[in-house]
Amino acid sequence: MQPAFRILANSQDITAAIRDRLIEITITDEAGIQSDALSLTLDHRRRENGALAELPRVGTVLTVSIGYAETGLVALGKFIIDEVEIRSPPATLTVSGKAADMVGPFRSPKTRSWDETTLGKLVETIAAEHRYTPKIDPELGRIAIAHLDQTEESDMALLTRLAGKHDAIAKPVDGFMVLARQGATKSVSGRALPTITLSVSDLAEWRYQHSARKPGGSGATKDANT
Hints:
This protein is 13% helix and 45% strand. The chain has helices at residues 15-18, 119-129, 138-141, 155-165; strands at residues 3-9, 12-13, 22-28, 37-43, 61-68, 72-87, 92-99, 109-118, 133-136, 144-154, 168-173, 176-181, 203-207, 218-221.
């Protein structure tokens, strides 16, 4: 299949402008209070006409979608550029950013109490306060909460704490507030997720690492753009 991507910079489509310079897109999907991260690397060599890759500014919001031409693109969120790096040789330009959903009031401490509610209603309330659309696993949403104190604790920290108690993940993603089981085989709507099987011939490289501190295993497809 043919890898494909689309990138908007402050809502302007820049896909065509960087397509022939793209070396690598890396998106790290973190859990809990850690922000998802984006790293975008471009060929920064001067072209015959003297052109260089345009230097993006810190603070630019990049909206990234990746996938395959045959199956379509999947939106992976918005990221605010907070770091720009130029290096040589080889001449490359790398911009890095954090998820735009993980900044602002969502991180601000609050003090309040929650009484006679459910985990689902709590998540819905917080989602509405921050203008997110809730996407909640039905089973998790039914968990009863008799009383809960939120004392000088941000909404992000509260949701992470509650999700951790129930082997779940709670985080904002591309305008949605998601509450889902870790390693779930179903989407938050209850639909079964497809199983993808990768063979050695599908990978450019792979490794397995066993550690008591962190999970192991990583791989890369044949095309750097994915």
